[in-house]
Design brief:
The structure is a single chain. By secondary structure, the chain is mainly α. It is built from 4 helices and no strands. The protein is elongated.
Length: 125
Amino acid sequence: NETAALAAEIAEDMQTLESIMAVLDIPASTVKDLAAAVGHRIMQLKPHAEISEPRTSRVIELETLSAGITGKAALWRSLQTVSATDQRLQEFDFAALRAYNQRDRVNACHRSWVTATLTESAAST
């Protein structure tokens, strides 16, 4: 399912970020706390059949995830710029990282979910 695939990819991206931080000698505590919070929200995304919360909660979760992925894309762009002059970052292929693809897929899920929610709401009125 799409959300499980996205969660797996985002977990891999977190490992990449941890590798980058290690190369740059950045303490992991602050970023790890943020990453843990983001990871927790991602893991809350469940396949459609398992959701027990109101449908609008799912829409908000998807919007939050999309915003987080957009932030990650901005970070990758910044690091790609820095990698032109910082030898430590040249081992990473920032262009190959999939944030834009992930955002597009989350946004497609969002559109689908909103359509289903509005259709269901219209049918029940």
